């Protein structure tokens, strides 16, 4: 069934096609960890409105949550009548639209999913941002500086992941309530500094292929006695949309293949073998088709901006931060108003420029953003309009090549989903 209350709440929060608003206190991705606590423990708060479980039991022995990176609400609507498993989820379970947090990025959302902390508390909000402890632009998921060609370069400096990532996790809390947790991630990052820190308390299950992972998850769910939570992260949809665009035949083929695998290996293979178990499927964001060749590079559009940027102790400008759908700028205070006025004029019709403090006060980072987040945020935010990109150019270091992207507040990137279906 379709959750009509969620549709109405999110529609009412939209300002225009380029600007929606995260509903942190109700239908938002940030409430999913609390829903998991509610389903598996005696916690009385569900986080999300109970319409996401309309007609379903509300307590379970096991919960399987699948995060399909990039498969936002727009793709659910595109494929739900075409793919049998999606159609079954829609007809036999509950389909709810959710908002993402802001920014609509993987960094923010996987951190929330593992720690239970919304972006305003976790402080991990984008692919690149200024990190005071390294006095530079940091790539948190890679644990390196922006522009580094290899992962984990900051390990060589002695920086400990616990110093820059949250150490409180959802899995620690579940373990204290007698729930065993498992995280399924691709082997290329399953044991990264980021994953080791934010997944603390769960058993990490690294995999090479999706059929392997789904088979291992199914076997584990059948064999496990007692309460258990399985969190399975799938990145192939997001990756293929970035490379080819979300309207490409390659994307279509990847979506069809993935949902067929899910149907066969995590639905049909478990039918009748699991009881008192709920399947949840969600996404961290959607995607918008873009043309990288039309990217607006700020240092080419407006060279006068560079002298206005804040610099670190080595006199390097703090740029670029955020992403090309939500670019954050660190402007020296005396030039802030001048930069806002200039960029507003130059980007008119293609992007909107905001003082970051305006968005903070309006609740776009949640009700009470932490000092950690505030120290990492730039003081200007550029939000490109539909299909537009704004970034910074350095050949072979910072260039835009994506044909699908996300990070901003347009409908297709910041409206996501939660599908709920019990195993019977």
Helix/strand structural class = alpha/beta
- List low-confidence stretches: none
**Residues in β-strands, percent:** 15-25%
Q: In the residues, how many domains can be counted?
A: 2
> Cα-atom Rg, whole angstroms?
21 Å
In DSSP terms (H or I, runs of 4 or more residues), the helix count works out at: 16
Q: Look up the CATH topology of the largest domain.
A: Alkaline Phosphatase, subunit A
Compute the separation of the termini in Å. 17 Å
| Order of the strands making up the biggest sheet | 2-18-9-1-8-6-7
Helix proportion of residues, in percent? 25-40%
Largest sheet: 7 strands, mixed
CATH class of the largest domain: Alpha Beta
Shape: globular
| Overall pLDDT confidence | 96
Keywords:
single chain, 424 residues, alpha/beta, Alkaline Phosphatase, subunit A, Gyrase A, domain 2, 2 domains, seven-stranded mixed beta sheet, 16 helices, globular
Structural summary, described in words:
There is one protein chain. By secondary structure, the protein is an alpha/beta fold. The protein has two domains: 4-123 and 165-288 and 410-422, 3-Layer(aba) Sandwich (Alkaline Phosphatase, subunit A), CATH 3.40.720.10; 292-401, Gyrase A, domain 2, CATH 3.30.1360.180. Helices cover 32% and strands 19% of the residues. It is built from 16 helices and 18 strands. The strands form five sheets. Strands 2-18-9-1-8-6-7 form a seven-stranded mixed sheet, with helices on both faces. A four-stranded antiparallel sheet has the order 12-13-15-14. A three-stranded antiparallel sheet has the order 3-4-5, with no helix packed on it. A hairpin with a 4-residue loop joins β3 (129-131) and β4. α9 runs parallel beside α11 and α10 runs antiparallel to α11 (249-266). The longest helix has 18 residues, at 249-266. The chain is globular, with a radius of gyration of 21 Å. The chain starts with a helix and ends with a strand. The model has no long low-confidence stretch (mean pLDDT 96).
């Amino acid at each position: 069934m379709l959750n009509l209350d969620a549709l109405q709440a999110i529609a009412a929060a939209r300002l225009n096609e380029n600007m929606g608003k995260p509903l942190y206190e109700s239908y938002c991705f940030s409430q999913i960890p609390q829903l998991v606590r509610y389903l598996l423990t005696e916690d009385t708060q569900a986080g999300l409105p109970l319409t996401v479980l309309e007609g379903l039991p509300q307590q379970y022995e096991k919960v399987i949550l699948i995060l399909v990176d990039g498969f936002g609400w727009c793709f659910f609507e595109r494929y739900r009548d075409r793919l049998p498993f999606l159609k079954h989820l829609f007809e036999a379970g509950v389909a709810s639209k959710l908002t993402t947090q802001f920014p609509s990025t993987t960094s923010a959302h996987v951190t929330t999913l593992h720690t239970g902390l919304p972006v305003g508390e976790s402080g991990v909000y984008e692919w690149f941002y200024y990190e005071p402890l390294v006095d530079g632009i940091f790539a948190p998921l890679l644990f390196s500086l922006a522009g580094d060609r290899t992962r984990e370069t900051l390990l060589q400096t002695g920086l400990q992941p616990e110093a820059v990532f949250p150490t409180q996790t959802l899995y620690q809390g579940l373990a204290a309530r007698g729930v065993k947790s498992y995280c399924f991630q691709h082997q290329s990052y399953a044991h990264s500094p980021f994953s080791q820190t934010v997944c603390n308390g769960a058993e990490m299950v690294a995999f090479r292929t999706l059929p392997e992972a789904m088979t291992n998850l199914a076997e584990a769910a059948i064999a496990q006695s007692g309460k258990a939570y399985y969190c399975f992260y799938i990145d192939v949809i997001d990756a293929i949309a970035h490379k080819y665009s979300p309207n490409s035949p390659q994307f279509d083929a990847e979506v069809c293949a993935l949902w067929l695998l899910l149907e066969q290996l995590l639905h049909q293979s478990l039918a009748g073998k699991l009881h008192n178990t709920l399947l949840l499927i969600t996404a961290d964001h959607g995607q918008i088709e873009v043309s990288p060749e039309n990217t607006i590079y700020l240092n080419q559009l407006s060279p006068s901006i560079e002298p206005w940027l804040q610099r670190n102790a080595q006199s390097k400008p703090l740029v670029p931060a955020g992403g090309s759908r939500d670019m954050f700028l660190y402007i020296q205070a005396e030039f802030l108003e001048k930069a806002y006025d200039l960029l507003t004029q130059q980007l008119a019709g293609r992007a909107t420029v905001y003082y970051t403090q305006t968005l903070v006060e309006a609740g776009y980072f949640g009700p009470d953003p932490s000092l950690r987040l505030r120290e990492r945020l730039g003081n200007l935010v550029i939000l490109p309009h539909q299909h537009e990109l704004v970034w910074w150019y350095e050949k072979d270091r910072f260039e835009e090549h994506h044909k699908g992207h996300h990070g901003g507040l347009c409908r297709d990137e910041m409206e996501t989903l939660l599908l709920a279906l019990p195993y019977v």
